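Hey, can you fold this?
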Amino acid sequence: MGARKDKKMEAVKVTCLKKAFPGPLGPEEMEDVLKGVSFTLKEGSFTALTGSSGSGKTTLLHLLAGFLTADSGTICLLGRQLQGMSPKEAAIFRRRHVSMVFQEAALIPSLTVEENIVLPLVMDTGRLLDQDRLVRILDALALSGKLGRYPAELSGGERQRCVFARALFSDAELILADEPAARLDTRQSLELMGALKECAHTWHRTVLMATHNLDLAQICDRELEIRDGVIHFL
């Protein structure tokens, strides 16, 4: 299943990654956001990505997801170099191996909880649904009994749990989360992150989560801080 071969493998290896964007005066005045970011993530690790607003957290996640292209440097995910892929190969790789979670719970209102969770695998023809794993994930994320409900019938915390259940149920070995608990209260945030950490370890998912919340960062196995365009290991 997926690209995993060794439980001890490096799920993510980033080397000298640089990214700049046009400044107020346009392309003539480029502003460096990432100035040579390098780090590795082991498979099954749960890592917090911290830094002030505008430090480049979202930019880094979007580069890893393939939504942006780096100016220089390399990104190796699950043993594959992103830079060597064609656009079609990159799209297929992202769909099968990378799941992105945003602040807003991106659920389809007209689909039930179960339909939202299994959607990525259903869209990828020929892939079988593991009902036993679905039940275990629902239990772990306290979503049992919610399968037939629609997003509008869920609380904010339940909707975000549903998004993470979808990411875990898919075969995506890498989960990139951009401030996923920003709209939840403290209790909901801590409960969700605790459950997600346990699930990530159980199913060997690698999670990189951008957050401003230092309490959530402390739950993680490790914290990386973007400061002055580079990574600092905390």
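Oh, and this one too while you're at it.
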Amino acid sequence: MGYQQQQQSKPQKSATSELKINREIQAKQVRLVGDNIENTNRIVSFFEALKMADVMGLDLVEISPTADPPVCKIVDYQKYLYQQKKKQKEIKAKSVKVVVKEIRFGPQTDDHDYNFKLKHAINFLNEGAKVKAFVFFRGRSIIYKEQGEILLLRFAQNLEEYAKVDQLPKLEGKRMIMFLSPKPKKK
């Protein structure tokens, strides 16, 4: 029984910890903004703002706690949360996700393997992914670095209509790396 009494006596917190609603707001005065207020951007006492929200059957939500005085809005809290989540979802959907696909060659890759990897690169570029093509030199094969560079430049030339070269072949340790990104599609 004692546990249940403790559980009931705790004040309810809002769904998101950063937003305070109604009686959670600690300020003596607040700046009211919103569509449903006749004089927007006016400073009133906290109790007057809370009374206005009660009369309208809505909640007083603190949207900018760091301002002096804090900025509050009279809205339906659940609807406000829903709209905020919807905005975040739209922003996330509009953000571009860059995918980088790797294609690995050896310094003496034969024509069949080369053509196979070329087709894969074309598919990756058509899907909108960037391509990181590299020649890996194993052991003493580093003496063929000119062949690796020629191979990567030929690869870039064959992909000329699908991609533009972001970085020309560059030797980094035992790898010679080149980056390609898809050309914008013409409508």
